[in-house]
Amino acid sequence: MEDILLTIHKLRTSFQIHGKFYPAVDGISLTIQKNEVLAIVGESGCGKSALALSIMGLHPSDRTLVEGIIEFQGRNLLQLPIAELNQIRGKRLAMIFQDPMTALHPLMIVGRQIEEPMNVHLTLSTKEKKHRTLQLLERVGIQNNEQVYQQYPHELSGGMRQRVLIAMALACDPVLLIADEPTTALDVTIQAQILELMKDLQRQSQAGILLITHDLGVVAEMADRVAVMYAGEIVELAPVRELFYNPKHPYTRSLLQSLPSATGQKQKLHVIEGIVPAIEHLTRNGCRFASRIPWISNELHEGEPILHEIAADHFVRCRCHEHFYLPAERMGDESNASITAT
Ligand SMILES: Nc1ncnc2c1ncn2[C@@H]1O[C@H](COP(=O)(O)OP(=O)(O)OP(=O)(O)O)[C@@H](O)[C@H]1O
């Protein structure tokens, strides 16, 4: 168990809306090991970013309540004084943000920005910092590193900016990286390059990665294990192959059904109708997915759904999956009976 980097236990992150707190992350427990890529997937609004920012301690404390345990290398981050948290953030724990344009300072050359975490965490001379930064730029695949060191973010392409952000995250050799939709802002070819780069770097460094994405293609490419989130909860957790070949929870199955066919054949997408309810309107008792699969009767859901281990390392919430079918499957004609998203 010494390979466990992060243990999250019953994490609840609530936001204040009109004077009341509503959980966006609602009782999540997870672990991440050294050298493991754990993907968190789910559609917009299910709580992925709220989870990532909770781990990094980046929610404003006046409007957010973060409860539970986030144990990183044996210490509960939620109870650390800010000065001690700052010793960890940017050093052993680092984050790659979604949009490099907003994450980078527009008026500072990129070399200096990569050096910022080194200023805080490492005792290096100016020359050593520059040397390390040039090496980092090279590591993230930037050949003309001397030139890029001197450039401003707006002078670089989106893919180059994302490489710079990755270099910045790696500046102090983190053991755990949180990557929140790291390729969403990029076009498809550049996405593939950045994913390849992240995989290479991860192999070299043996770091753990918590990868947040709504893109199942990215999950298939990168992840060792996958946690599927719905309405603030984990509804399924499994090794990546098991999840893709043997999905159980109705939500996971609907996510996978909505992937276009790999053969390129035209087929209707099978997506379950509806969206994740807003946190202030969410019914929190019973199976949170029940309202989106009304053809499954109420008594087939658990009153208080828990995660069941249905195979080695494969967990599914609520027994409703045992009775679930897509109407298209029941009719035996997938091409006619699709359910479309709103
Ligand atoms: N600061 C905030 N104040 C109030 N509600 C918030 C705040 N941040 C997020 N929420 C709400 O919490 C829920 C989860 O949001 P979150 O951003 O974590 O979802 P997500 O899965 O990361 O979605 P996306 O993929 O769109 O980023 C949503 O209902 C969102 O509206």
From TrEMBL:
Keyword tags: ATP-binding, Cell membrane, Membrane, Nucleotide-binding, Transport
Gene3D superfamilies reported in the protein's UniProt record: P-loop containing nucleotide triphosphate hydrolases
Biological processes per GO annotation: peptide transport
Single GO cellular component term: plasma membrane
ABC transporter domain location: 6-256
UniProt-annotated location(s): Cell membrane
CDD domains named in the record: ABC_NikE_OppD_transporters (cd03257)
Protein topology in the membrane: Peripheral membrane protein
Highest rank taxon of the organism: Bacteria
InterPro entries: AAA+_ATPase, ABC_Ni/Peptide_Import, ABC_transporter-like_ATP-bd, ABC_transporter-like_CS, Oligopep_ABC_C, P-loop_NTPase
GO molecular function terms noted in the UniProt entry: ATP binding; ATP hydrolysis activity
Keyword RNA-binding tagged: no
Principal cellular location given in the protein's record: membrane
Family: Belongs to the ABC transporter superfamily.
Record-given protein name: Peptide/nickel transport system ATP-binding protein
Taxonomic placement: Bacteria, Bacillati, Bacillota, Bacilli, Bacillales
